[in-house]
Amino acid sequence: MNLFKAYNKFQDEIESIYLMGRFSDDITMPLIELSNIHNSDFSKLSKRLSFLTAESFQNIVRHGYSETETLEPIKFGMFSFTKTKDKLILSTANQITNDSAVKLDKQLIELNLLNSDELRAIHLETLSNNERTEKGGAGVGFISILRKTKGKIDYRIDKIDDKISNFYFQSNLINSKNEPELMSGFKAEEHYNFMEDNHFLIFRKGIFDHSTMLVMTELLSVKLNLNTDNEYKKILFFVIIELIQNIYNHGYEGKKGHEGIFAIKNENDKLSLSVGNFVLTKNVKKIKEKFNEVNSLDTQGIKKLLRERLLEFPVLRDNKISSGIGLLEIKKLTGAQIGFEFDKVDDKLSYLTTTIKNIT
To answer: What percent of the residues of the chain are helix, what percent strand, and what percent coil, each to the nearest 5?
Structure first.
C-alpha cells in the first residue's frame, strides 16, 4: 500500500497505533508505554489513558471468542489508539458468540442509562458479585471505563453468521474542560476494516525517535515472538530496527520532529515491512540513485560496497544521503529488492514509501 495515501486518510491523527491479530496479556505493558509516548499535551489524562489502554485491550482477551481454548487466553482482535488535536480515542474489535452479543447489548444499554451515583453503586455491587462478570457480560471493566470517560459506552454489534458476531467498542477522552464529552465519530469499525483490507498486523503513525524505536521493538518482540534464536526472527528484528531508524535518521525533521508511518503486512504467511516519511524534494534524485544502486547489486557486490562504505563512514557520517549502510545491510540479509515510491507534496517536500516484501 502507498503509505502517503494512508497518511492523507488519517491526517487528523497526530499519533496512532493499530494492532491486528492474536493477543495475549504479555503485550499490555509495551502497549501502554507506546500509547503514552509524545502525549505531554495530554499529561492530565495520562493515568486515565493508561487505565483505558489496559482495560480496552483486556476486553479482547476477556470477552473475545476463540474456536480453540488454550490454557493461556489468546484471542484474535484489533486494538487502536489515536490522538487528534483535542481527543484520545481507544477502540477494539473482536468476535463474540451471538448469545453473548444479545446479553452484552442488553447490559450495555442498561449501563448507558445510569447516572454517576447509580454507576458507583453498581460498580460496588459488581465487585462483590460475580453474576455480571461471566464471559460475554458487561462486567467491572466496562463499568470502570464508563466511569473514567464520563460519557456513554460507544459500541456496535455486527452479526457475521449464525454463531458469531463482531463487537466494536470505543472510548474517548477529551483534552478540554470546557468541551462536552461528545462522541468524536465511531472509528473502531473503520480501523478494523482498514487493517483487515490491507492485511496489516501493525500500523503506527506519528513522531519517530529513539525512544519510540525502543518501545516499538519491545512491543513487536512480543507480538511477533522475536525473542528467539531463530535466524529468520533475527533478520526480521534487524530490518524492523533499520527501517524505523531510517525515519528519524534520514527523514525530514519538521517542527514536531520526524513524522512517519511504520507498517507490517501479513499476506499468505509472508511478512512485508513498509515505512513512510517526508524527504526534501531536492534530494529525491539522489535518493532514487541510492536505491537503484543497492537493488542492482548481487551478493558479492553488496559485500564489496559495504566494506568500502564502512571504511569511509567516519568521513560521511554527516552526509546521510551518501552512506546508505542500512539499506546495504538489509539487502545483504534479505536478498530482497527494496521497493521505493515518491509522492510529491510540494516544491519543498516529497513523501517516500520504502517497502521490503515477502521476508521469508
So the answer is: 50, 25, 25
Percent of the chain with pLDDT over 70: 80
Residues 6+ apart with CB under 8 A from 89: 80, 81, 82, 83, 170, 171, 172, 173, 184, 187
> What is the model's pTM?
0.85
Protein fold of 21-198: Heat Shock Protein 90 (3.30.565)
Structure-block grid coordinates of residue 90: 481507544
Residue closest to 107 by CA, chosen among 76, 131, 77, 73 = 131
What is the rounded CA–CA span in Å between residue 287 and residue 342? 10
Quick: pLDDT tens for 283-303: 999 999 999 999 999 989 998
Q: Which element (helix H / strand E) includes 269?
A: none
What phi-psi label fits residue 172: left (phi over 0), alpha (psi between -120 and 50 degrees) or beta?
A: beta
The amino acid sitting at 85 is K
CATH superfamily of the domain spanning 201-360: Histidine kinase-like ATPase, C-terminal domain (3.30.565.10)
Q: How does pLDDT run across 129-139, given as a tens digit for each residue?
A: 654 444 444 56
Residue position matching grid coordinates 514536531: 256
